[in-house]
Specification:
The complex is a heterodimer of chains A (399) and B (512). Chain A has 399 residues and is α/β, with parallel strands linked by helices. Chain A folds into two domains: 333 residues, 3-Layer(aba) Sandwich (Alkaline Phosphatase, subunit A), CATH 3.40.720; 49 residues. Helix content of chain A is 37%, strand content 12%. In chain A, strand 3 and strand 4 form a beta hairpin. Chain B is 53% helix and 3% strand. The chains are: A alpha/beta (399), B mainly alpha (512).
Chain lengths: 399, 512
Amino acid sequence: MTLDRRHLMKLGAAFAPALIAGRVWAAPQTRTRVLVVFLRGAYDAANVVIPTGSDFYYQARPTLHIAKPDPANPDAALPLDADWSLHPALKDTIYPLWKAGQVAFVPFAGAGDDLSRSHFETQDTIELGQALQGSRNYGSGFMSRLSATLSGAQPIAFTDQLPLTFRGGKPIPNVAVGAVGKPGVDDRLAGLIRQMYQADPLGPAVAEGFEVRDEVYRTVSAEMVAANRGAVSPKGFELSARRIGRLMKADYNLGFVDIGGWDTHVNEGAAQGYLAGRLGELGRGLSGFADEIGPDAWKDTVVVVVSEFGRTFRENGDRGTDHGHGSVYWVMGGGVKGGRIAGEQTAVAEANLNQNRDYAVLTDYRALIGGLFGRIYGLNQGQLGQVFPGAAPKDLQLV
Amino acid sequence: MRPSRPKTMMATAAAVALAASAASAADGQAAISAHDLALLNRLSWGQSASSAAELQAIGARDWLDRQLRPRAADRLPDAAQAQIDALPGAQTPMAELVVQMDAQNKAAGKLTDPDQRKAAQQAYQQAMTNLGRAAATRELLRDIYSPDQLQEQMTWFWLNHFNVHMYKRDIRAMVGDYEDQAIRPRALGKFRDLLEATLKHPAMLRYLDNDQNAGGHINENYAREIMELHTMGVGSGYSQKDVQELARILTGVGVDLNPDPPKLKAAYQPLLVRSGLFEFNPNRHDFGDKVLLGHTIKGSGFGEVEQALDILAREPAAAHHISAQMAAYFMGDDPPPALVDRMAKTFLKTDGDIAATLRTLVTSREFDASLGKAFKDPMHYTVSAVRLAYDDRVILNTTPMQNWLNRMSEGLYNHETPDGYAQPAAAWSGPGQMAVRFEIARQIGSGSAGLFKPDQPAAKDAPAFPQLQNALYYKAGLDQTLAPATKSALGQAGSPQDWNTLFLSSPEFMRR
């Protein structure tokens, strides 16, 4: 079965263009690898992609602000364009990718209709990707629907639990890549266990679980051999992201991973401090991912970084920020038309705040991600309508 | 059977079965009805030979009464209680413990020599972690061995409902008390009391930052979660304005480690409330009037909080939200709406009586029809396996269980966000999760798995082997509940270890 998966990936990569040219496909091919990264807890976007051109930013954040770009100051923000700058904790990881034109930031992005300001509610909203009116179907996430729409999708969640976005349809494997060890259940026992589940609704999940377990172990044990040659072992998200890079290079082309710890109500820090630490780890992880997947595959990879909402534009009484609305999404990849701030924008000023509190949402997540999928996979209107029912895709020409 | 030397038992499955059945014949337990066995499995942390015998002796109806109204005289087995009494921090009241730990932390921070400072800080962290682990040990021993199984299940349920994350700040020193003093005594009592007990506990006030919520420095975090998670539920009709008003009501509700009361002007002195580490500090309170869910609340001090809790606990939305959660916890996905409505009615009629609401659930047709169909979350899976395996012998170390739970992402006091662990089966039955579960089945099934090696330096591992083919299996009729595919796989087991692994991996054992 493993061979099948690798085989399919290769087929997809090598022959897809020719085949597409030769005949009309019912389902679009999946040449491009897509990884969705969910920052759970609502990261403080305004202190990561920073409106350093706005005086109001400096008024609203007396202790949390990041200094305007200044080559002499290591704590200063890094210039992106005339209005926006990047947090200095991303200097060695994301900033080089920006300079190479491989990252675009989409400010004022998020779930426009969902003003609950509840982490859980809005994470669910985004993962499900359904229209907000009407009752929710918790058994149908947008990545699961995307996977069903594509031919040759090899989906996987790099999470210890199967996320909502991958629920529904065929069972999609999940694996906690941070902790991988030699399987203790041997092939004979695994076979007997599969037998017990043959007529059980969990049967497909059980079979898929054993298959993925074996694949991941093979990939990671190869890494462990390599790492023994004196290299410093990465930790935390960087370790996971590097493993994800290896797995997506070989076996999988549609991935999801989440990273938590962004709910900075208290003592958030500025150029240094808590948020800077989280960002540093995120940046090392994402650039490590690009590194592991390798230059060839990176050209055909798109990473989308999302979060449930932004935070209050003004800092609160505890040197932190509370729940807000609009966020900033990232789109990265070797073939991404980046090095720019994309999507509709408005001046960052007090008068333009949503409910006098936070960023407005000008680019809805469904429009943005739908538009991106449309370009990546060549999905038609009907297919996009299956992935994001009732949403009008917005093509920001990011790939 | 000779548990200490499993290798000598390598035999055909038939011989294994014979040996087990001979061993269990002495217990003299007759079969109990499939319904009662399933009921026991659902309302306890998992069926065991002794709990099946108890249910059978008094009948299902009396057994349920006893579970809904635990008797004060109920005791853990001595071997479990003795372990609990010897745990770190067990003999010190929480308020004292937190103050001691705080002093240790501050003293460590003041050391000028960097190496000494680092060592002292590490020692502090280790001591804190030991306190959190002690709380987990106590909880697990109770879950496995307490006669009051439903109360223990509901204690976990409420802990999850009023979730705190022990690795935030100094909550590791508080979480055991939070569970034992705030939650367990009220787990089957009145919801309003439970809500207030969690509100007055420093673990909750720390976790949701209300100790930093003061007039002019509003922090909405706790106020929002009270409405969204603890009482009414998201989308149930409250507004952002209500959250802000509740946050104002909660200003000054906090934690104070200082033994001396805060300095207050004379008018404020009668308004100060202190109890243990809990403090309502009028200096930090916003005394303006508020409007919560249409009710005007006059600025008066802590009485505002009491009024707000009265309003929230009696909201029909809260009755419905809590009933739906309890039903989902016991029945699995999508409990029937009509049943949830009936539970919510009971909840409102009895002023939030949790036991009464549970009785409506448990005695319903829908509940009966759902028996055996709910997928176990990792907590139920782990505890039920150990209960079945070591019913008659108290384990000596819960560390392996804590590790399994963390590996399956449902570690005790270890959910970072206030929503608690998810309840739907789909959250726990993904392919990767099933593979991990089978690995853990193998560990539990293959031997003592570290459960009998006391958590002390140089401790020896006492011999033990999981007795799954026990009285419950053969005499009480557990074997009758297995599907042909399961029996066929068990019949191909090459060793008792394999048999155990397969049994604990079976579709039947995954459900309750």
